[in-house]
Design goal:
alpha/beta; 35% helix; single chain; 468 residues
Amino acid sequence: MIALSLAEIAAVVGGQTHDIPDPSVQVTGPVVRDSREVVPGSLFAAFVGERVDGHDFAPQVIEAGAVAVLASRPVGLPAIVVEDVQAALGALARHVVRRLGATLVALTGSAGKTSTKDLIAQVLRHKAPTVFTPGSLNNEIGLPLTALSATEETQFLVLEMGARGIGHIRYLTGLTPPKIGLVLNVGTAHIGEFGGREQIAEAKGEIVEGLPQDGAAILNADDPLVRAMAPRTKAKVVLFGESAEADVRAENVRLTDSGQPSFRLHTPSGASDVTMRLYGEHHVSNALAAAAVAHELGMSAEEIALALSEAGTLSRWRMEVTERPDGVTIVNDAYNANPESMRAALRALAAMGKGRRTWAVLGKMAELGDEALAEHDAVGRLAVRLNVSKLVAVGGIEASWLQLGAYNEGSWGEESVHVSDAQAAIDLLRSELRPGDVVLVKASRSVGLESVAQALLEAGAEGEVAAR
């Protein structure tokens, strides 16, 4: 964070200093909410959770070098006490962002937010110092923490914004007002909470409403609900996609033999070829979104294409591709799942597995409400249509819907199986995998299928799978 004294911070957040001998002492390190992340000069934000009270860690964090605790009650150690720690964190982020003068880029969408945010950050880092949301810390706590990690050298701040209801993104843009706002897509993720895709579009579109007139709204030309957001902003509208009407578009899209996308990138200032290190055709849209942002910030088509071709995976468990010594390829995409990302991952598996035996180890997609049965059934059917060799549906009723969809689509019988939990899936795969197989692991985060991918990687390292 930019250096601020405890007195300045208390004034910004409307707090009272307690047990602080010298209010002129500065916070020079990051603002953190996890006591394990404290370094000398930090400010520790104490949140009260269901099981853990951050105030209890005050002695530990002060000993580790924290300058003070941002707290909702006195802790007997240096603290700035406020009524609401979350609101105070937001106020501090808003103050720091105003002081910085960095260009803020905010993005949202139903699928692909984190992958696209990582791409944007990797491209913009070729131009200037860039700070971006780590992982998926895109809510009312994670976003301020990211903004507060910027320093005086930061020129670009890339912020992922999530929403679980109307007004959420409006709140986040109020804390960190973007100059560039990007909407990737409107899908069915969290549709059970929103009630419909139109309501999701209403919420996602909040990101462009507050953009300044000299800003830019980057919208997906291939998604009608996103494209329809154009009248909601006074900023310049830039379209990306494969549509001929897109300002930033892709032509000659194809997948390499290993399933990595290649295409000709067209921007208003020129064209250049891209071959990505990431896997799956769905990354083309993500790359075009990143390219549109970078073009608006002054990068040439050649610079953007080079950066996109070099970009890798920064966030864990998102299409992480690892080949074991025996030739089995594990695709760990277990961080989260919704119908759109599930379909994209299955298509990537099919592309990667040409001439090889493919396994789709799939689990529940959460928060789909009344659409849950139909969406799980559709994913199971798609696995058959893509000629995935084996479907392993893991978990409860939703997994049974996955298997039923596969069975009804192609009478798979032995080609699909429903197992009770992750350990059952591990046991099955350990006994049946053959060298050269490709395994996709994907489900909503609550299912915990990353344990399957990890166990299979460990088994390969230990040489458990013999050639069959």
